Amino acid sequence: MSEWTRDERYQRYEDIDQEVMDELTERVNQSKYRQLFHIQPKTGLLNDPNGLIYYKGEYYISHQWFPLGAVHGLKYWYTYKSKDLINFEDQGISLKPDTKDDSHGVYSGSAFTYHNNLYYMYTGNHRDENWNRKSTQHIAKVLDNGEVQKFPKAVIAAPPSGYTQHFRDPKVFVKDGIYYAVIAAQNEDGYGRILQYQSTDIVNWTFQGEIKTKLEAFGFMWECPDYFNLDGFDLLLFCPQGIEPEGEKFRNIYQSGYIMGQYDIDHLVMDHGDFHELDYGFDFYAPQTFTDEFGDRILIGWMGLPEVTYPTDSDGWAHCLTIPRILTIEQGNLKQRPIKALQQLRTNKETALGYANKFTRFLKPYEGKQFELIIDILENEATEIYFEIRASKSQSLRIAYNTKNKKITLDRSESGALPEPVEGKTRSTYLDTPLSQLQMFVDTSSIELFCNDGERVMTSRIFTDDDAIGFKASTESGQAFLNFTKYDIKGGQ
Ligand code: FRU
């Protein structure tokens, strides 16, 4: 594919001929990798989820969008509404780059309510004639008819002194009636930080300082911060950039994870344990959380990464959002499970019970491209268990579990087309407890693998050929007694 020039990447969607968009749409619709039950861009590139909130009986879900192709260019917010987080009503563009401050993109942000009205806080990205960045933070009000009205000027007009123009992604939350925003930043020593602002009227924001953590030198930028209290624990989520791999950890180009402990919001001190990744797959970044109608904490991520070329790019589109996950803390550990509402997408149940051994078996009923599969490991005397999904004679995505060290591995080396550049063809994590269950949501070109009922999640895009629709099970030696439950999945509306 030919390189996009800067001018091409900063063309306005409004200036493009309908004919050109129709042609692009046609090309995208013919892509064999189009998803069935994930939010994906109708054309162009989707990245971070933005402005997630449950408001007046409806969920609002937006995402970063560059409409014209599978590259990072001039960003808009594209919005969906939903009553149940599985059927989505397309609202189209909600925020566009139409002021000087956001002339080079309406960047990521969050949603909140103030006096029962809905607002977004987001970053305006501007470049001057020398391509120097200027980042400002803005607020817009969402009217009942869906129209979004920007406040006339920035509510935070510049980063505080001591920080660079890498200053973005405000996440607003309310505590004891006071509004707070945590904002991604970079200090002048070139390290990622999170800054905290406070307001009582949402127009005037006071800089309180940087959140003090034990992570002094942990990457050059921390994107997309999020803060919340869950079951008595404070969690700070962020996406550090510039972390070196450590064994099986931190192998993607950029990371996405959390620190957990107790946060003293008045003194901005976070007392915390280690930084943990949220997801151990190949394709996960920039998640955002919100509370649902039941008061549960839900997370949605971007199933993709910056600076990586994907096999869909040549079809004129890239990326999708993850399915929503519900977060809980159990025995001091974060658990992530698919939201219950996804069960409404299930059709056509099939089950099977049987042994897997060293002879690879194709299990016929488990065929298809979009399905939910639950494997209960009832007994395990195998040294290693292997599952191959989306399998043909020559391709498959392999999931391997090593009984001895509880290591679970996603292996994309035989899975067809691959994103690039990506370090290695496997991703692994060590489970806390022996493998008892795998629950996977497989769409046309992705898998979200939940291990041991929310203990670990591995999210990856997969680009196997059309005939790779089988499922295989085997072991290295010894046998495992397994129960399979498979549902076909229908798309939401
Ligand atoms: C994260 C990010 C954000 C920024 C947005 C721009 O993927 O780089 O920091 O606001 O994407 O699209």
TrEMBL record:
Residues 342-480 form the Glycosyl hydrolase family 32 C-terminal domain. It is found in: Cytoplasm. InterPro entries: ConA-like_dom_sf (IPR013320), GH32_Enzymes (IPR051214), Glyco_hydro_32 (IPR001362), Glyco_hydro_32_AS (IPR018053), Glyco_hydro_32_C (IPR013189), Glyco_hydro_32_N (IPR013148), Glyco_hydro_beta-prop_sf (IPR023296), Suc6P_hydrolase (IPR006232). One of its GO terms (cellular component) is cytoplasm. It holds the Pfam family Glyco_hydro_32C. GO terms for biological process: carbohydrate metabolic process. Residues 38-338 form the Glycosyl hydrolase family 32 N-terminal domain. The keyword Hydrolase applies. GO terms for molecular function: beta-fructofuranosidase activity. It catalyses: Hydrolysis of terminal non-reducing beta-D-fructofuranoside residues in beta-D-fructofuranosides. Its EC number is 3.2.1.26. Pathway: Glycan biosynthesis; sucrose metabolism. It is an enzyme of class 3 (hydrolase). CDD domains: GH32_ScrB-like. The keyword Cytoplasm applies. Keywords: Carbohydrate metabolism, Cytoplasm, Glycosidase, Hydrolase. It comes from the Bacteria. NCBIfam families: scrB_fam. Enables the bacterium to metabolize sucrose as a sole carbon source. Belongs to the glycosyl hydrolase 32 family. This is Sucrose-6-phosphate hydrolase. The lineage of its organism: Bacteria, Bacillati, Bacillota, Bacilli, Bacillales.
